[in-house]
Structure formats: C-alpha cells, structure tokens
C-alpha cells in the first residue's frame, strides 16, 4: 500500500501567475475572438449632425432667412416698388424718436396688464380656491372658462365689437335695463376708454389659459404641504403665500411668458375692433408694422419696428424666466 503524498504548497506568486495565465487564456469577447476596436469619439457626433441637417435647413428657410431679410430691409428706405436708398440705423432711430411709435409701444405695455397680469391674477385666485377646497365638476368648469381660447380671435373681435356698439350693443342695453343708462358709453370710440375696452376683451380670452395652467399646477403640489400648513394654524391667505404660490412658480412663468407674447404681438384684435383709433389711441407696434408696410409704403420702417418688437419680446421673456429661476432657488 503506497503512502499518500502530501500536497505541494502553492506560493502566492505562482497563484497570481496562474490566475493571470487563465485570464489571458479566456477570450476577450463573449462569442470568441477579439473585441472590435472602438470608433473614434468624434465620428458619432458628425453622423448626428447629418441627421439634424434637414430640420436645420427647414428652420433656416422658414425662420432664419425671413428674419435676416427683415433685418436687411430695416436698413433701407424702400416703398416696396421702386429702388430703395440706404438708411443705415435711421429707421431704428425713428422707433425711439417718432412720437407715434413711442405711443404704440406704450399702448402695448398698457395692454400687458390686461393680457398678462389680470389673467394670471384671476387664474391664481381660482387656483387658490381649488387648493383650499375640493370643487365638484372642476373639469367642466375649466372647459367652459377655456372656451374663449379655442375661438378664433377674429370671431372674438367681431362679437365684442357688436357688444360694445353704442346704440344697440349688449353692454349698453344691459346698463339701460338695470337703470344705469347714464353709464352708457361709446366704448371703442372714446379716446380714454378705447384701449381699456380692447384690453378687457383680451382679459376675457386669456384668463382661461392662465386658469388651466395654474389649476393643473396646484394638483401636483403635495397635499401633505397643505395639511402641515393647516396643522400650524395657517389661514387661507397664509396658506396661499406659503404653499400655493411657491409651488406655482414654473406655471406662473409659463403663463406670463405666453400672455406677454400675445400682448406684444397683438394685431388682429386691434385691427378689427378699432383699426388703431380713435386717432392713434389704440395703435400698437404690430398695427404700425401693417400700416407702414401696406398703407404708407414705408417697408424699411415697418421692418425696423418688427425687429425692435421681436427684441423687446425676447428680453421680457428672458427676464420673466430669470426671475422665476431665482425664485425657485
């Protein structure tokens, strides 16, 4: 009977070498063979640019080229038919120095209160009520209020022009029916009332948009925050400013941005209701662009007004979003 030979001890160095040899023996790729070489990191990006090239060309054709052409036209005195003369920055200087243009931009800023501030304030009020108590039929309620947003602005303007009629308009007839005939006015024909009357139409149209955005934002605020505020004894006002308002910063920024753009590019409402009148009491920059380009043959001036208006809209939109971002921090 042979003796059992003792196992030979393995040194750590030989174990490491054996493990390395085993690792080298295994294939580098699961299916055998060697791992394929990695592509240069820049190649996929170049291929990606080819994918977005068609979209960029469409963007350039529909937006960038017209914008660049408008900038080019703004540097000329041109009536749209004859040969133009070089104006340089003179058309842009007129935007600042011309009293009619200054007043049109001032009117646009006044309309901001009716297009943006009032609708958002009404939307916040409704959102606060929704957050404070459960409202039955909220979906139907939101749909009814949002309906003016669905109707074309041309239809809205014609309808309200009939309501504002001084002789047999619905508003004056209602005032007479309740014994307030002394308050009847020529709403769109009065120098002092025309601009607020147009602004009132805008408030009626856009407060539904603000309400839908803000009530949707309220529903994403955790109910636990409201419960904690009520446990701390917060009343409706404190609860609104401590919970609802901070939770709606993003929605408020979106609503203000959209309604500000609508206010500053407003044309159809003014054109159909007042045509900028009486006098120039309701003239706005977009109406001045139309009037100068198609009525008085000042295409270069119209282009300069349009570019200036686009810059103002961009700056105000950036300002609104910057303020919202700082508030979120």
What is the CATH C level class of the domain at 111-284, in words?
Answer: Mainly Alpha
CA-to-CA gap between the ends? 86 Å
Give the total of beta strands: 2
Looking at the structure, what is the overall shape?
globular
How would a textbook summarize the main sheet? Answer: 2 strands, antiparallel
Mean pLDDT: 84
Count of individual helical segments: 14
SSE pattern: HHEEHHHHHHHHHHHH
So, CATH architecture of the domain at 111-284? Answer: Orthogonal Bundle
Structural class: mainly alpha
Residue runs with pLDDT of under 50 for 5 or more positions:
1-9, 12-25
* Cα-based radius of gyration, to the nearest Å: 33 Å
Q: Reading side by side through the largest sheet, how are the strands ordered?
A: 1-2
- DSSP strand content: under 5%
CATH superfamily of the domain at 111-284: MetI-like
Share of residues in helices: 55-70%
Family: Belongs to the binding-protein-dependent transport system permease family.
Transmembrane segments: 49-68, 105-131, 143-163, 193-219, 240-264, 299-320
Keywords: Cell membrane, Membrane, Transmembrane, Transmembrane helix, Transport
Domain ABC transmembrane type-1: 105-320
